[in-house]
Amino acid sequence: MSHDIDEPPHVHVDRDDQSAKFWLAPVALARNIGWGERVKDVRFTEDVLIVDLLDGRTISVPLAWYPRLLVATPEQRANWRMAGGGFGIHRPDIDEDLSTEGMLRKH
């Protein structure tokens, strides 16, 4: 999973705590193998995305890094679900996918 603002058309397939993302053109499996940073909770301030991890750490990143989140309503930001076996976040209202690995590597 990744920040998918420029990604091709895709679908998400989720079951229990498992998740897969498939590109549609051409059809291919996109898969993230996380580094162990599983999501516990997600919250926001006015300009920061905050992700609490199960191991006790917290990732804080500027919303400006993610244009879809920056312009999303508070309700859209709050509507998230765990994806990628717990290593990512999917927001169905804005079709936004973030991985903990991507947040740690960004910029």
State the gist of this model.
15% of the residues lie in helices and 42% in strands. The mean pLDDT is 80.
Count of DSSP strands: 9
| Annotated CATH architecture | 2-Layer Sandwich
SS strand fraction:
35-45%
The Rg value, from CA coordinates, equals: 13 Å
Order of helices and strands: EEEEEEHHEEEH
* Largest sheet: number of strands, sense, barrel closure: 3 strands, antiparallel
* Anisotropy-based shape: globular
CATH class, anyone?
Alpha Beta
- Rounded mean pLDDT is 80
- Ranges with pLDDT <50 over ≥5 residues? none
Going across the biggest sheet, name each strand in turn.
1-2-3
If you consult CATH, what is the topology?
A: NE0471 N-terminal domain-like
Describe this structure in words.
With 107 residues, the chain is mainly beta. The protein has a single domain, classed as Uncharacterised protein PF10387, DUF2442 (NE0471 N-terminal domain-like, 2-Layer Sandwich), CATH 3.30.2020.40. Helices cover 15% and strands 42% of the residues. The strands form three sheets. Strands 1-2-3 form a three-stranded antiparallel β-sheet, with no helix packed on it. A three-stranded antiparallel β-sheet has the order 4-5-6. A three-stranded antiparallel β-sheet has the order 7-8-9. The longest helix has 6 residues. The two termini are 17 Å apart.
